[in-house]
Specification:
2 helices, single chain, alpha+beta, globular, six-stranded mixed β-sheet, 6 strands, Conserved Hypothetical Protein Mth637, Chain: A
């Protein structure tokens, strides 16, 4: 399964289907692709308490895509490891192109 299935069109931009591992030794996005779940993987050092992991994830995604953190928000799964992130103002094709440097073709 191609990792691009996790990058979807959404109103005003795109949506990313992400699986998060909080409390990791390192912070990294993208950290791979879970083909079974069809989600990009992310690792965050922050614990899953009081939105800390979500805040770190938003920053990592914004950095990876080259957009301001204010353009990225958790749309679904705020208390789950499986999240949908909405990125405003970035087409799915452009998001995939920016992630391709890390994920590969």
């Amino acid at each position: 399964m191609d990792w691009r299935v996790a990058v979807k069109p959404a109103k005003g931009g795109c949506a990313l289907e992400v699986e998060v591992v909080p409390g990791s030794r390192e912070s990294r996005f993208p950290a791979g692709f879970n083909a079974w779940r069809g989600r990009l993987e992310a690792k965050v050092r922050a614990p899953p308490e009081e939105g800390q992991a979500n805040a770190e994830l938003v920053g990592l995604v914004a950095d990876a895509l080259g957009v301001p953190a204010s353009c990225v928000r958790v749309g679904a799964g705020a208390t789950s490891r499986r999240k949908t992130l909405h990125v405003e103002g970035l087409a799915p094709q452009e998001a995939a192109a920016r992630l391709a440097a890390t994920m590969g073709p």
